[in-house]
Amino acid sequence: MSILHILNGDSTLQSFEQTGLEGDTLVWREVLSEGPLEEKITSGSFWKNRQQWIGKTFNETAEGYQEKMLDQLAKLNEPYDEINLWFEFDLHCQVNLIGVMTYLKQKTDLSLPAIYLICPADFPGKENFMGMGELNGEELEYLYDNIRVQLSELDFILAAEAWSIYVSFDAEKLKKYVQTTDFWGSLHLLRPALEAQLKRLQINEKGLNYIEQKLLDIYNIGLKTKPEIYSAFWRTEKIYGMGDLEIDIYLHRLQEKGLISL
Fold it and tell me: For residue 261, is it within any domain?
């Protein structure tokens, strides 16, 4: 049986390679929680816009993006019997997850591969679980054996609905969707992630969204260096799943507005 594991990042890949799990790997090196999006994720314009934005924002070359992301997508043209999706609870991962699921729904015949989700919100014995990158191979196998669930057609319908709402960047649409959706199927961690996105879409009287205001508050209490700001942000806002480079996007906006100086 041919198996594909779609992993949420290179830190998970390092641990995954320590497991005894069979199959090929595809590392999803994207950050769909930031930057331009459109509903048809399989379109050429979608990936062209992503490539341009990633290049401009993170100083990535077109060749680098092609190798790290676009070449990986070619694996989804292969006739796998089983696909395992390894993603986490935070907004970064949940948006990537519904993006992957929507991609699969738009591109492939879902009647062929069995598609499973491994999506931990916590891990036994780890009080402040931040993600699968902190687990070793044995611990990843534990997740595979104990929380893996097979996704249904309804789960893919839910993912496509959520994706459509998300890419609209419309706070009112998202608020209504979150408030009126009672059934989340196997995507039980999607709702809190979308609630975090709603907070980010809403703009306060200062013209700042939730993340910008949070970072400004951290700066104003006396934490003036990026490492200090990162650490303080992660302590309370791990739901966003943001790394240094993503936080820098918001710090740059604050600097452009003259609100901070780093």
Answer: no
